[in-house]
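Quick note —
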Amino acid sequence: MPTNIKEWNPEDPTFWETTGKKIAYRNLWISVPALLCGFAVWLMWGIITVQMSNLGFPFSKDELFTLTAISGLAGATMRIPSSFFIRLAGGRNVIFLTTAMLLAPAIGTGVVLQHPDWPLWSFQLMALWSGVGGGNFASSMSNISTFFPKRLQGTALGINAGLGNFGVTTMQIIIPLVMTVGMFGALGGEPMTLVKDSGWILGKITAGTETFIQNAGFAWVLSLVPLAIIAWFGMNNLLPVTPDLGGTLVAFIKVTWLYTLAFVPAIGGLYLYLPAPTGLGVLNMWLAMPLIIVSTLGVMKLAAFGAMKENIAKQFAIFNNKHTWSMTALYLVTFGSFIGFSMALPLSITVIFGDQHILDAATGIWTHVKNPHAPSALQYAWIGPFVGALIRPVGGWISDKVGGSIVTQIISAVMVVASAYAGWIMMQAYQSATPEIFFTQFLVVFVVLFAATGIGNGSTFRTVGVIFDRVQAGPVLGWTSAVAAYGSFIAPEVIKNQIKAGTPENAMYGFAIFYAVCLVLNWWFYLRKGSEIRNP
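Predicted structure written out below.
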């Protein structure tokens, strides 16, 4: 089978059974581990920051939260151009190049983590660069949607996204493990000594233990190199989807150019948002984020060249469809919550349960001192994302059977209740001298939230496949995933700000209100009698 496939019609049962099925599934099974590594590199700062705190890196909790927020925002912004990559450059070309690109932030992160005395901006630069891994999701999902017939898209996209989402869990398990050993000998650098207790999947690691934190970046080289090679030799470009493919080098230039353009508004927005000394701190999050999104789209449209300009203009047509916007909001409920809580949870566990919170009755001032009975974030943080990723293909499969919107409606209702309860638990813990007694309830309710987001991820993608034709479905999938990925920026920042204010519960109450609004939106557009598109 040639690398570039000229004819592709998966809706034809004969073509699908004789030719298409084998090709589609081969591309899917190569796509999954590549996407998994993209998630891992993008979201690794959620775990790295916890260990930086345990090793006594000279940064405040606020500064550590900025690292997770920066990588989250960069990854979301990278998804905007990524949603257009497949039509511009071809699936095989894009997956190979974007997988190989992950080597730079992986190696760079390993280098900076060996130097705790380096300035904060050097760590922030690596967190920004890690955003390339976040962008990979949009191109990967857009690519897989073009290979499968509509009747199988919920399942295929659920497998790709669900197993790809295991990058979160894989990273949260592997990074604490690889930090315990010198994997690369003299090439890997010297260990550092824990000043606070740490942990991994099997329990606590006591202070005084030697730790190779740099392996959090270096370890991904071992999987990225073979995956890039497999993608190069095993995947295909579909010419009906990418009619103006051109040469491979031209395709690489298109991808690199658009990614470079996307970094400009991301850096500019972060500079305006982040406080001194990193930035100016003149915009709040709710202004900085839309500004970055709009300016990224504007830069792409203005700076595109040749046939790329015409193709981008065609794909911008999705913004004239109201269902693009309704599905964007619904996907923010599901994937936005999954990725946001994945980023915020490890450091939130460390901050809320890592200290005893004692109120001085005379002055009304809270003091926060080290909690000797604190649960280890690195031991427990992986459980929620694991459940959410594991159940995602099930959500796609159920939605193929009963309809995506009814599934979205049920999980939205569950998330309203679970978020409100999570807020109440966080309030109890943050006002307790023994917060660990609330940890089991906290963990269980977040597992429920992650399970709901996992099922909802599959159901919303299924709904997109019903609403949009094959030409628009790919860009819509990419766009909705891009906006939803800003959850990885929103959740850490909202939770950080509310913890700082002493009211972490308000973050979860706010999320519950948003879920309730989107529950009504889903019913209005897709479930009520007389709606334009009933699903079912």
